[in-house]
């Protein structure tokens, strides 16, 4: 393979998304490769936040209906921009809550156990908050975790085998909750096939899209997924704690949300202040209280960037970046000590790679000190996410050079082997 830096610049010159990089705040001499944990601030997102503050300053209470982005309908307005990212119509999506609260809402709605069908199927590599939410709903229904919680096992601690997922779809499972992309290894599951197989067994299907939204295209409506939920602070660059989103397939829109609040009302009736809930006819019904508008504002700008380029172009470049990263790491003798735990096949890979090494914690510290920002995952994982909207092939090249130097000179040995909260 061609490992020269001039080849990396050549790839950048031929990159149709290269000009988007200037829309983001990239720090000088820093290579940011942690966009799958917290995406970077873009100028349109910053502008939207400033505008919202300005509207608050100048309109006060009238900002709910006047101003640049009337607050009363902003969740719905943003859902129109979010829907293409998940392959849904605007009325199947709502920008609201967080991953965790949205999963609670969706389980409260869709998990209706009976004596025959009472289990919730997930997997042992799930992000913990999803499992905690599932456990809460079993508890609320007085179903023991032993009986009700089914976790698909991973044979290698990184990935799931599709045959194991399919085999776990038994007649007593009510709902299956899986992640589209596994947060550690970056494995991308086959959402379409899993959904089809689950439906053949009469099981409802929900996906956590935290690691795929903004990185991988979806067709949730056509794949007939029942529901999905996600955050917006990773690949969607909505900022720390930005408001999440959810999808409910239109075939379920007559259902009453399990958790109800006044912002889930039909908008025409919300201010009637009736003691009876008149639900919105679409996914907006799953909202609870007053939207967290200042945490939603960045999405106004950041979603526009996706609309400009489209998900197919984003996915194409993302795959090129992760392939290039993997090839370099495998090619250079200094970096061959890393185990790459992410699937090789494009159709099974999300937007990041997981490298494992016993010294991962110290290596991450050394990388950070040398201007490369990775993501440490305890106990021995380094996630690297070259993001299509703002990372270049030269970034990837430099990252691997720094990694190779660090391994060759063992510079990581000078760092303490203690772990902080994040790394
Ligand atoms: C797959 C997955 N689910 C859930 C979460 C976190 O949920 P919340 O946004 O509610 O904090 C994360 C955070 O990294 C995640 O990666």
| CATH hierarchy class name of the largest domain | Alpha Beta
> How are the strands of the largest sheet arranged?
2-8-7-6-5-3-4
The major β-sheet equals:
7 strands, mixed
Topology as H/E string?
Answer: HEHHEHEHHEHEHEEEHHEEHEEEH
The small molecules bound here are:
pyridoxal-5'-phosphate
Q: Structural class of the helices, strands and pairings?
A: alpha/beta
Mean pLDDT: 96
Q: What is the first-to-last residue Cα distance? A: 32 Å
Number of helical regions: 12
Which regions have little confidence, pLDDT < 50, spanning 5+ residues? none
| Beta-strand percent range | 5-15%
Tell me which CATH architecture of the largest domain applies here. 3-Layer(aba) Sandwich
Helical amount: 25-40%
Give the CATH topology of the largest domain.
Answer: Aspartate Aminotransferase, domain 2
- How many beta strands in the DSSP annotation? 13
Cα shape? globular
Radius of gyration: 22 Å
CATH homologous group name of the largest domain: Type I PLP-dependent aspartate aminotransferase-like (Major domain)
How many independent structural domains? 2
Walk me through the structure.
This protein is α/β, with parallel strands linked by helices. The protein is built from twelve helices and 13 strands. The mean pLDDT is 96. Residues 98-100, 127, 129-130, 179, 183, 208, 210-211, 231 line the site of pyridoxal-5'-phosphate.
């Amino acid at each position: 393979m061609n490992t020269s830096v001039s080849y990396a610049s050549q790839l950048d010159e031929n990159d149709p998304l290269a000009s988007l990089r200037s829309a983001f705040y990239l720090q000088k001499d820093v290579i940011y490769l942690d966009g799958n944990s917290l995406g970077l601030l873009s100028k349109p997102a910053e502008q939207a936040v400033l505008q919202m503050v300005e509207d608050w300053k100048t309109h006060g209470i009238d900002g709910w209906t006047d101003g640049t982005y009337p607050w009363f309908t902003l969740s719905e307005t943003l859902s129109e921009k979010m829907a293409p990212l998940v392959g849904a119509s605007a009325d199947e999506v709502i920008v609201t809550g967080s991953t965790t609260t949205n999963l609670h809402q969706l389980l409260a709605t869709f998990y209706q156990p009976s004596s025959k069908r009472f289990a919730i199927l997930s997997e042992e590599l799930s992000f913990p908050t999803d499992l905690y939410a599932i456990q809460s709903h079993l508890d609320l229904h007085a179903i023991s975790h032993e009986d009700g919680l089914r976790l698909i096992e991973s044979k290698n601690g990184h990935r799931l085998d599709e045959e194991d997922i399919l085999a776990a779809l038994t007649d007593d499972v009510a709902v299956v909750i899986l992640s589209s992309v596994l947060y550690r290894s970056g494995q991308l599951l086959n959402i379409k096939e899993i959904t089809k197989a689950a439906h053949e067994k009469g099981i409802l299907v929900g996906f956590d899209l935290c690691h795929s939204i903004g990185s991988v295209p979806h067709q949730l409506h056509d794949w007939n997924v029942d529901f999905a939920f996600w955050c917006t602070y990773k690949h969607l660059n909505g900022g720390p704690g930005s408001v999440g989103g959810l999808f409910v397939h239109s075939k379920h829109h007559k259902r009453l949300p399990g958790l109800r609040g006044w912002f889930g009302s039909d908008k025409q009736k919300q201010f009637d202040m009736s003691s009876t809930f008149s639900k919105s006819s679409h996914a907006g019904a799953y909202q609870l209280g007053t939207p967290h508008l200042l945490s939603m504002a960045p999405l106004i700008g950041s979603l526009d960037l996706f609309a400009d380029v489209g998900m197919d172009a984003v996915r194409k470049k993302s795959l090129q970046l992760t392939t290039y990263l993997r090839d370099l790491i495998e090619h250079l003798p200094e970096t061959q000590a890393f185990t790459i735990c992410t699937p090789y096949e494009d159709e099974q890979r999300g937007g990041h790679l997981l490298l494992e090494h016993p010294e991962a914690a110290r290596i991450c510290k050394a990388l950070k000190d040398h201007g490369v920002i990775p993501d440490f995952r305890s106990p021995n994982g380094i996630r690297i996410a070259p993001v299509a909207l703002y990372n270049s092939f030269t970034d990837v090249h430099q990252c691997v050079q720094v990694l190779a130097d660090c391994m060759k000179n063992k510079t990581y040995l000078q760092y303490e082997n203690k772990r902080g909260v994040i790394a």
